[in-house]
Design a protein that fits this description.
484 residues; Nucleoside Triphosphate Pyrophosphohydrolase; homodimer; 34% strand; 25 strands
Chain lengths: 484, 484
């Protein structure tokens, strides 16, 4: 073209680098040094950081008010988030409901900073206190920032290490994908899940510690320690490498084979994508916001919003006082579950390759209709009151699972910035082959890993419990994969 | 697990079949028999089918009315679609606007039925008349059905061949993905783009004809012949096979290398996905529906809705009379553009591999913020009035392109069920290397093909013009790829 500028040399052609990252991350997962340093940092931070949270009536929160015109609870700045009513209609005229929901239409960053130390990739993790945490500190990403945080609406200090995530020149991207938050609590909320590697020297601030992936995998087994954001990002890490454990009969080998890209699968990916397309088309919902005051089945009394039958969750107000945080004192609404939830996945070995039974589940706050969810996702206390035919499928099999078949069982918290003392039992149960109901499919970890490169395929609970399953990836200190 | 049923044998493990489909489709693309049969069917159908469309004032359409409470134009059944006002706010306080938009929150089917005939995959295509078509018949998918169509709201006849798309036992899925319609005309409208293969005998009805992919590629060069839905589905076909044309210097060989999976690329896919994530985060919009009567810059007079400056498009009413269609006579609103649009892509060869300069473009009706769009997507007549610094980037280079660099140049129509005599000039221009502005990247056809497996990556205009570029895939009758 005559008017085009003279062609400068194009950049060097690269090839797909995801597998190289996966190889180095798998090596980090196999590396499990002593946790003594981590425990020291946790102890020091615990002594330095103090967050106290007390309940305050929703209608007496400084900075927040009930907007009579809209019927929402909003912040006087117009920022942060609002609590709104939602009316949901499905394609079945028999299924419709109303509920409160958090509207926070902005995309935050959940970021892991990664660096090679002594030849092994290490993750810079933060021990962080959030107002809703049941037990003080939890293991958090390097950066966990709402847009309000990182654009300064909090009037807080700079977010440490944020520059590595914002400046392309300072990092190499391993993954960068927007993923949904809980679609029954948030209206179309998403966060950027980022993993970036740097070669620059990194100054380790108070409360931060370098961990290998193997160390994080060990810590996932501790109750309420690894926070929700960390689990979400862990699930987005590429970990699939060509499996060279073909003779091994153990669970760990079946897991490693499941992660391998291009390994054998029950359902080719094109069929999985078609099943997702079809189910999403069938399960489209219409959801629109309505005033909190007109929600059927919910009442706003005693300074909180509760379900009349005492189910689901409350919206409460809290006053937070934090020493060692960027802002020292504030009020805010929070979600408090009435009972622990359950996120359980069934796994089975098909010719030596682990498959996970995933459910495609519609939730009103999801950006795209339905996402893959754990085999069972529910609040068991609420389900106990339902007649058997209305209970979630496979819940009975969870209740009757034998201890020897339970591969993972840990209570883990929801995000402590929005959820107060709220969490789920995370369960991995090995079963025999089970027939697939229409909304369920047996998938490999490699297939799920391919889908996590893209937004809107795995819901928060699925990512969370899959991070737990992936934590059983055999480490060098680990003999269990040579057994059973 | 003790309570699990005895395990039945699991299905046979399959491996990823997309490449096998691509190999067979590439073979179909290379096969270009005579078009005599197609021309005969077109002639016969033209003699049998007659659709006449005349303009009627919007406020005098049978079955439609202006809903005073909502401020929308709706159908009395509450079905089909509505015309609503939209207020759009971007993250820049300086950029906000209002416009009419079509709200049709349901997912239709655009489907190709494929069958092997004499060892080559053939596509069952329909010569179909739509009310907005400028020139009568256009080449349409086997099935092109809104949900109203296929659930019978039209009171029309059964949709022919629909069973192959609905019954999993009767087909093998090649692709099945929901893709967006035009995000500046439709509010979150999507269609299932499906390609399914059958082994059953297929009865060819009047108006239908079997074509190879190579024949369709030739027909794409004809003005207003291959309709928008067909172009959309064509772009979702897997066509990438390992390239064995390493010595060939021609354009066709550079195109084939660009389609090859795992070929060399300027930007690894992980970086492309990160760029999409970042740009989408930055370009989030808020859009909400408002009454048509309050739209700034638009007026509802003389039975149509027009832009006060005579730009963009009109919403008009039409009366349609169709002989040979399932419903004989009806009224409906339609969109009529004020001038032809432009969908232009620049391509360049980087070390013998064709790359396409794609733009990430936000549109208010898109489900997920922004999608990949052609290098230039605009209405040139509207842009001529803008000061130079506000004109779309690269538009000047389109205007000054040399004829020898234009690889494809055909006027093609928008979907004739909603758009009246409206279409775009589709242009493929070969250039030298151009530096990438922040919202632009040079990508290979293989990368774009990988992204079309998933929803919400390529907008309608991008799919449409990429189908045109892919139609230059060399056929066996084609010597041009050995030249230049």
């Amino acid at each position: 073209m005559s008017t085009a500028p003279a062609a400068p040399p194009p950049p060097v052609l690269g090839t797909y680098r995801r597998r190289e990252a996966a190889r180095r991350l798998a090596e980090s997962a196999r590396t499990v040094p002593s946790l003594a340093k981590f425990e020291q940092v946790a102890e020091d931070t615990q002594a330095r950081v103090l967050t106290t949270t007390e309940t305050v009536p929703l209608d007496r929160l400084n900075g927040w008010h009930y907007d009579e015109r809209a019927g929402f609870i909003t912040h006087e700045s117009g920022r942060f988030f609002s609590v709104e009513g939602l009316r949901v209609e499905t394609q079945s005229p028999l299924v419709a409901w109303e509920q409160p929901i958090i509207n926070q239409p902005e995309t935050g960053i959940l970021g892991f900073l990664v660096k090679e130390i002594d030849g092994i990739l290490h993750f810079l993790m933060q021990l962080k206190s959030e107002p809703g945490n049941r037990n003080g500190l939890q293991l958090s990403p390097t950066v966990q920032a709402t847009k309000s945080n990182y654009t300064g609406v909090h009037g807080g200090l700079d977010v440490p290490y944020l520059k590595f995530f914002q400046d392309p020149a300072r990092r190499r991207v391993i993954a960068d994908v927007r993923q949904s938050e809980q679609g029954s609590r948030f209206l179309r909320k998403r966060n950027r899940n980022m993993i970036v590697e740097t070669n620059e020297p990194v100054d380790v601030r108070d409360g931060f510690v370098w961990l290998t992936l193997g160390q994080m995998h060990r810590l996932l087994a501790a109750k309420d320690l690894v926070n929700m954001s960390t689990r979400s990002v862990l699930a987005c890490l590429p970990l699939g490498v060509a499996a060279n454990v073909s003779e091994d009969e153990g669970f760990g080998a079946a897991l490693a084979r499941s992660l391998a890209p291009d390994g054998p699968v029950v359902h080719p990916l094109v069929n999985v994508l078609s099943w997702i397309t079809e189910t999403r088309t069938r399960s489209e919902m219409r959801a629109r916001t309505v005033p909190l005051s007109i929600l059927a089945d919910w009442e706003f009394t005693d300074g909180r919003i509760t379900h009349r039958a005492g189910q689901h969750f409350d919206v409460i107000g809290v006053r937070v006082e934090a020493v060692g945080r960027e802002v020292a004192q504030w009020h805010q609404p929070m979600i408090r579950a009435r009972a622990a939830e359950l996120a359980a996945i069934f796994v089975t070995r098909v010719r030596g390759v682990l498959h996970v039974l995933m459910q495609l589940r519609a939730e009103p706050g999801l950006t795209d209709t339905a996402e893959l969810a754990p085999t069972v996702q529910c609040t068991p206390a609420d389900c106990a009151q339902l007649p058997p035919e209305e209970r979630p499928r496979f819940l009975d099999l969870v209740h009757s699972a034998r201890a020897v078949d339970i591969r993972f069982d840990t209570a883990l918290s929801d995000e402590g910035g929005r959820f107060y003392h709220t969490g789920s039992r995370h369960l991995v149960v090995e079963t025999g082959w089970l027939p697939e109901p229409p909304e369920f499919r047996w998938l490999t970890l490699g297939q799920l890993e391919e889908l996590t490169q893209h937004s809107h395929y795995l819901n928060m609970q699925a990512r969370s419990v899959l991070a737990c399953l992936r934590s059983l990836f055999p480490g060098d200190d680990d003999e269990q994969h040579h057994q059973r």
